[in-house]
Amino acid sequence: MRAKRGSRIPLALLLPALLGLVFLVLPLAGLLIRAPWSAMPSELSSPAVWDALRLSLICATSATGVSLVLGVPLAWLLARTEFPGRRVIRALVTLPLVLPPVVGGVALLLALGRNGIVGRWLDSAFGITLPFTTTGVVIAEAFVAMPFLVISVEGALRAADPRYEEAAATLGASRLTAFRRVTLPMIAPGVGAGAVLAWARALGEFGATITFAGNFPGKTQTMPLAVYLAMETDPDTAIALSLVLLAVSIAVLVGLRDRWMSTP
After folding, report:
1. pLDDT tens digits along 99-118
2. Do residues 140 and 108 touch, judged by C-beta distance below 8 A?
């Protein structure tokens, strides 16, 4: 094994690199080796599995839609405007990336729960209760997934040449029209990549969901929650569900390989 420039790789680097590779690959190999391949069709055909899969797809797609509607304008605000406290706002936007998901779920309860800052008002004024509902699942997933889209779109906006927007403005286009007709088509690949990442993150969300929305079959039990519950009673079903999520993750990485995994 040789380095790019023809020099031999130092053993002091090669050994920990190989150990790191084994550390990351071995658990996935164990999942594939222990998978009940012969019983896979029956494991994945149960109504509970299909309910969890259907709910996961619906909620992840809805959370991605929320992220697009709110996240794209937020990314534009961070990339194209100057205002006091912009760095603080960017830090707050990216905070869910490093915040433990369970802490995010607790924060959502304190804000949107029946006794929360906003949830109390929603309940008394409109009779709207968000925790432990399917809508609560969507909110929890959007909370943890939206930063992925914002970061991707902001990067695409910073890479896009703003002179095209300025040229559209000189021709009489409003800022909204210039964004819709000029900027948005230019950054479409970044928006698409961010949406895919947000969808995948929402599909795999666990901590914030179980804390804010609970684990009710057919109502709030998504695929990760079904895996967690099945591990206690039916490990084969848990492995089968894990393989489905693994396949989705691989598909996302394959779909984004040209954008984020290319080498110069």
Report:
1. 999 999 999 999 999 888 99
2. yes
CB 67 within 8 A of CB 153: no
Query: Measured between alpha carbons, how far is 151 from 182 in angstroms, rounded to an integer?
Result: 20
Q: Are 185 and 160 in contact (CB under 8 A)?
A: no
Distances (CA, A) of 70 to 73, 77, 144, 246: 6, 11, 13, 28
The pLDDT tens digits for 114-147 are: 888 999 999 888 888 999 999 999 999 999 999 9
